[in-house]
TrEMBL record:
The keyword Transmembrane applies. Its main location: membrane. It is a multi-pass membrane protein. The chain crosses the membrane at residues 36-56, 63-81, 101-119, 183-205, 226-247. It holds the Pfam family RTA1. It comes from the Eukaryota. It is found in: Membrane. One of its GO terms (cellular component) is fungal-type vacuole. PANTHER family: DOMAIN PROTEIN, PUTATIVE (AFU_ORTHOLOGUE AFUA_6G14140)-RELATED, PROTEIN RTA1-RELATED. InterPro entries: RTA1. Keywords: Membrane, Transmembrane, Transmembrane helix. This is Parasitic phase-specific protein PSP-1. It comes from Aureobasidium pullulans (Black yeast).
Length: 270
């Protein structure tokens, strides 16, 4: 993957040679000024989610690993969308651009780690014997893979952010390629996790009559079912987000997909 001369020319002009007063937003790497209302909405949603997870962690004092991952993930998402508010005011803001890359890269990986931890607790609460993988192995295997993906994506984002203020095309290309490697590894890990989770829930559904009384009551509880459905939806959305980010980055910074905000709002933000 390489950056076309036209794309790189736009990147190279930001921010030394372009400001919001001298250049249109179409000259920025994203090619637009992020929508103020939409991004303010996501700031609020993730901030409320963060506070909710903080309250629940303090109230119940259980599943702290899951709570910490979700608190950090939603906090970074909120601040990350705050950086897009900076870009809304000034599409050429170097600070907004760097924060946007780094925070919105790290945050979803932390949310994914929370979901990985969640399956361990679900298997232990329902029937660990029906899990295709020993419950104690979910955390070290999948969180380690997620950590590797976080490191790759974070490193790629940092490299790209550092190169964005200069004219180092090779560094920009390197940053994008490292981010794609991290996203690709995350997609593979998510796919494997989905298979294992699917097998477990399929087995649970077929063995409801053999569950212990407490597990049977838990499985039938509407609140528990809503919780599981919400986790599944979050997992699906994160998987779609990772696939979208790979497509967005494969043509480099300033790619046609990257320059369409509606697709970002639907496939990444939501």
């Amino acid at each position: 993957m390489s950056i076309s001369p036209a794309m790189f020319a736009r990147a190279a002009t930001r921010p030394e040679h372009c400001t919001k007063d001298t250049c249109p937003a179409s000259y920025s790497i994203y090619g637009y000024a992020p929508n103020l209302g939409a991004n303010a909405f996501f700031v609020a949603i993730f901030a409320i989610s963060c506070l909710t997870f903080c309250y629940q962690a303090r109230l119940y004092r259980k599943w702290l690993g899951f709570s910490i991952a979700m608190i950090l993930g939603t906090a970074l998402e909120s601040v990350g969308y705050g950086s897009r508010l900076m870009l809304s005011a000034d599409p050429f803001s170097a600070t907004g651009f760097k924060l946007n890359i780094v925070l919105l890269t790290f945050a979803p990986a932390l949310l994914t780690a929370g979901i990985y931890l969640l399956l361990k607790h679900l298997t232990l609460s329902l029937n660990p014997r029906l899990s295709p993988l020993k419950p104690s192995l979910y955390t070290p295997i999948f969180v380690s893979c997620d950590l590797a993906a976080i490191i790759l994506q974070g490193a790629g984002g940092a490299i790209s952010a550092a190169a964005a203020n200069g004219t180092n095309k090779k560094l920009l290309d390197l940053g994008v390629n490292v981010m794609i490697a991290g996203l690709s590894s995350q997609v593979v890990t998510l796919a494997i996790f989905a298979i294992l989770a699917g097998v477990f829930f399929f087995r649970i559904a077929g063995a409801r009559d053999t569950l212990e009384p407490h597990a049977g009551h838990l499985w039938q509880a509407s609140g528990f079912r809503m919780f599981v459905i919400s986790a599944i939806l979050a997992f699906v959305f994160i998987f779609v987000r990772c696939a979208y980010r790979i497509a967005e980055l494969k043509d480099g910074w300033g790619s046609p997909i990257m320059r369409r905000e509606n697709e970002f709002s639907i496939l990444d933000s939501v």
